[in-house]
Design a protein that fits this description.
It is a multi-pass membrane protein. It is found in: Cell membrane. InterPro entries: ABC3_permease_C, MacB_PCD, Macrolide_Exporter_MacB, Permease_put_prefix. This protein has 877 residues and is an alpha+beta fold. It has five domains: 1-59, no CATH class; 66-118 and 360-498, no CATH class; 126-350, no CATH class; 521-534 and 742-877, no CATH class; 546-741, no CATH class. 52% of the residues lie in helices and 17% in strands. The strands form three sheets. The chain has a six-stranded mixed beta barrel. Helix 13 runs parallel beside helix 24 (746-780). It is globular and about 105 Å long. The two termini are 55 Å apart.
Length: 877
């Protein structure tokens, strides 16, 4: 459809001598785009090319005779538009400000949406690269994973002819890196296959792409990481040390991975350094696995081959390790393993699996912000229309005089459209300035690293230029036809009136403006309330005054002595050693069976945490039954502490302490329940509390310190001093648990702030338009106001008369906006297992608040009209 419209527009304006050749070139370019980007985007590009080709030199001969496009007339129209803007400085300022802010907001959203849609498309053959994902069912446990088994990459390449290349990565770690006795804490480190760099076209700055990770003890660094470790020194073939345990040679340096990528690695260590024990283990899903196919259409073929492929390779190990027949377990519904391919271009916006490499976006948010951007721009255009019609009576005599002197309606339309386009162009330039000025703030707001795309090679400027012209035309076409339709015989006598249709149109436009504004205000209020609820909800553990000391595995066998020294400090109440801390999205699950279970189909997956005896005391965990681990009980080495969610899953509602639990994976090892901990939020607040088990173990990952109130600087000084005694000069790395907890809400905080900003912009722009409409209404009703005042009407009566119509419009806007906001927010809140209720008070206060803001905006014009001397309003009679 869009292509046909473009062809019609081109045929309409293009000279016949040029039409066939240019249309042929456009068609050839269209076919090329059709193959590369598909029909929808090819149609859009064809339409934009038609608009961008518009120029006077291509116009038909019949057009050259029309005064509407005559150069002299165009110059005159521009001059008249400029004079009109100078004469009406205040209204011109309001027009330009509203339109510029609206266009800037729309442009910011366009930049945001363009970046969101660009993820992973910068890779060569990105449409042929896929990640293997899985949906697993184990009894009542369901897992949606972004991982696959270790052997799957190699085996898929061997057995599927469609697979050109396969590669794995594992982990997204933070490690201590040393070079020349200088230590840094480096994040986003992964193990990777050599083939990873054959699949992903990451720009290589140093090294041989074919031999980056094909030898043990080798690594590839990003440019920033290399400079962080080596400074200006050439990193190639230099040896770094990881965690004081592993010496690694740098074999390559790549450019920093673009921010619009679904992974954010800074260092790749060869997979050849891993223990080979799991190389043929199909029951563990721990590897991010990528396949590059010979065509994007081959995805359906590979997906269709997965069921037989999985059955062929998993059956023996399921029988051996779990004691069940795979076919029977699948048929009974107790076991399922479904693997499928995800296009990497879809991962960021469409995937919501466990173990994602970074926080993803949301295609729903892309749609939402696109709609918001459209409506904010629409509000700005509506303002322009209302401002223009508000000044209709002022310009009516100008129109009448021009018509008496021989101006045609088309010439007047052309003049007013020229004014509109000039306003739009000036506003567009101002919008670009606003975007350039506030882009750093916008990046901070959205968590992105976008450079100004307006004038870049692949930027938005062609689209923005066309959009600016279209905005000028659309915003100006209604006022142009309204103003040019005045009859000279009436306007020169002062009898100019506008009909009910014009009034209805303006009212509809105002309702659209304020419906959008109220919707955004309600959305902002609910997002704020939900976020506040999550941040202040009872967690089940203490997050305040907890210092987490990282990388304590570097202390080796000195870690217990280190903990003891910490506990002796006067500012420290307790300390605990563990590999896991609450409020982090850590996963370490394994299946377990109750003592009454007869088959592995009844297994329950538990999150396993290895801790010491002081964990519950340090984090203030509450016990629902039994006790936590204690040094007084030697039997605790075979004991376990479950949370309430796990007890429910095992069906141990009564007397759970002393009952047995058996591991499926550890050769049937049996453990005794010594206690039940009350549920606490050990992962994100956006997830249900999962079944969890604590084991007493030799953890070394971190030491958590509970310190006394108002002693933050003291505990840091004391902890670092003790660290220096044992660390041998290694850096002291730490976090505060409340900061970790707060950071887990970053995505929601950004959404709240973005909603609030755009809600503020929408209501501000709408109020500018309302100000213009109030000016129009008071101008139209000035004689009525004068007569009422002469007859004794009070100020209150006159204000009520002027406020009534606007109050009705806001109420209608509320009636439209509230159900839409209710539906949207109910859907948004449904994603949270712990959520607030839809409080009617928020809807009411949003509507009332908008009404008050609107009436205050109208109040200036209304007070001015009500106070005016009736003689001024009536003297033209």
């Amino acid at each position: 459809m869009l292509k046909k419209i473009g062809e019609w527009i081109f045929s309409f304006y293009c000279h016949p001598d040029f039409r066939e050749d240019i249309l042929g070139d456009l068609e050839e370019h269209y076919r090329s785009n059709f193959k590369e980007v598909g029909k929808r985007r090819a149609d859009l590009k064809f339409f934009l090319n038609v608009l961008l080709l518009f120029r006077f030199s291509l116009l038909r001969d019949t057009w050259s005779s029309l005064n509407l496009i005559h150069t002299t007339m165009v110059k005159n129209n521009i001059k008249m538009a400029y004079r009109s803007m100078r004469r009406q400085k205040f209204y011109s300022f309001l027009n330009l400000t509203g339109l510029a802010i609206g266009m800037a907001a729309c442009l910011f959203i366009a930049i945001f949406v363009k970046d969101e849609l660009s993820f992973d498309k910068h890779f060569e053959d990105s449409d042929k690269i896929f990640r293997i994902a899985s949906n697993l069912k184990f009894g009542d446990n369901v897992f949606n994973l972004s991982f696959a088994p270790d052997p799957m990459a190699k085996t898929a390449k061997e057995e599927f002819p469609e697979v050109v290349e396969a590669a794995r990565t594992r982990g997204n770690l933070t490690q201590l890196i040393s070079y020349n006795n200088n230590y840094i804490r480096q994040d986003h480190i992964t193990w990777a296959d050599q083939e990873f760099f054959s699949i992903f076209s990451l720009p290589l700055l140093r090294g041989d792409r074919n031999h980056l990770l094909d030898e043990p003890n080798t690594a590839v660094l990003t440019e920033t990481t290399a400079k962080k470790i080596f400074g200006e020194e050439d990193p190639l073939n230099k040896v770094i040390r990881v965690n004081d345990q592993l010496d690694i040679k740098v074999t390559g340096v790549i450019a920093d991975i673009p921010d619009n990528t679904h992974f954010d690695y800074n260092m790749f260590i060869t997979m050849l350094n891993r223990d080979d024990a799991s190389r043929n283990f199909w029951l563990g899903n721990n590897f991010t696995t990528y396949l590059k196919l010979n065509s994007k259409e081959a995805k359906e073929v590979v997906d269709g081959r997965f069921p037989a492929f999985i059955e062929r390779h998993l059956a023996d190990q399921v029988k051996q390790m779990m004691g069940v027949d795979l076919k029977d377990a699948v048929a009974s519904g107790n076991l399922a393993a479904t693997y499928f391919l995800q296009p990497i271009e879809d991962i960021y916006l469409y995937s919501n699996l466990d173990f994602e490499l970074r926080s993803g976006g949301s295609i729903e948010n892309v749609y939402l912000f696109s709609i918001i951007g459209f409506f904010i721009l629409l509000i700005a255009c509506i303002n322009f229309m209302n401002m223009a019609t508000a000044r209709a009576s002022i310009r009516a005599k100008e129109v009448g005089v021009r018509k008496v002197l021989g101006s045609l309606k088309g010439q007047l339309v052309n003049q007013f459209l020229t004014e509109s386009i000039l306003n739009s162009l000036v506003s567009g330039i101002a919008a670009i300035a606003i975007v350039t000025l506030f882009l750093p703030f916008f990046n901070q707001l959205t968590g992105k690293e976008i450079v100004n795309p307006i004038f870049s090679l692949n930027g938005l400027w062609p689209y923005f230029t066309v959009a600016t012209l279209i905005v000028g035309l659309l915003a100006g076409v209604y006022p142009a036809f309204v103003l040019s339709s005045f009859l000279p015989s009436k306007v020169l006598k002062g009898e100019m009136t506008q009909g009910k249709k014009a009034s209805l149109m303006r009212n509809i436009l105002v309702v659209v403006q304020f419906s959008t504004s109220i919707f955004l205000i309600i959305g902002s209020a609910f997002i704020y309330s939900q976020l506040d609820y999550l941040q202040h909800k009872e967690l089940g553990f203490n997050k305040d005054q907890i210092l987490v000391i990282n990388e304590t595995q570097l202390l080796g066998d000195q870690i217990q002595v280190f903990k003891t020294e910490l506990e002796r400090s006067a500012v420290i109440e307790s300390a605990t050693i563990s590999d896991f801390i609450p409020a982090t999205n850590t996963y370490n699950d394994s299946p377990f069976l109750s003592e009454n279970a007869t088959t592995t189909d009844e297994a329950v997956s538990l999150q396993i945490w290895y801790v010491d005896e002081d964990y519950a005391k340090t984090y203030d965990l509450k016990m629902a039954d039994g006790r936590f681990f204690s040094k007084e009980f030697a039997s605790d080495s075979t004991g376990m502490v479950l949370n309430e969610a796990a007890i429910k899953r095992f069906g141990y509602a009564e007397n759970p302490v002393g009952r047995k639990i058996k591991s499926v994976m550890e050769n049937g090892s049996t453990y005794t329940i010594v206690g039940v901990a009350k549920d606490f939020h050990f992962r994100s607040m956006t997830e249900e509390i999962q079944p969890q088990v604590f084991f007493l173990g030799n953890s070394t990952g971190s030491v958590s310190v509970k310190f006394k109130a108002n002693m933050t600087s003291d505990v840091l000084a004391a902890s670092e001093s003790i660290w220096d005694k044992f660390s041998g000069g290694k850096p002291f790395e730490y976090d505060f648990l409340d900061d970790i907890f707060s950071n887990s809400f970053n995505d929601q905080v950004r959404l709240k702030t973005i909603f609030s900003v755009f809600a503020g912009l929408a209501i501000s722009i709408a109020c500018l338009g309302l100000f213009g409409l109030a000016a129009y209404v008071t101008e139209q009703r000035k004689k009525e106001i004068g007569i009422r005042k002469v007859l004794g009407a009070s100020m209150t009566t006159l204000l009520g008369l002027l406020f009534r119509n606007f109050t009705i419009l806001i109420l209608v806007s509320s009636i439209i906006a509230i159900p839409l906001a209710w539906l949207y927010m109910d859907g948004w809140l449904a994603d949270f297992p712990f959520r607030i209720a839809l409080n009617p008070f928020i809807f009411i206060i949003s509507a009332v608040g908008t009404l008050i803001i609107a009436l205050l905006t109208v109040g200036y014009q209304s007070m001015r009209a009500a106070r005016r001397n009736p003689v001024e309003n009536l003297r033209c009679e």
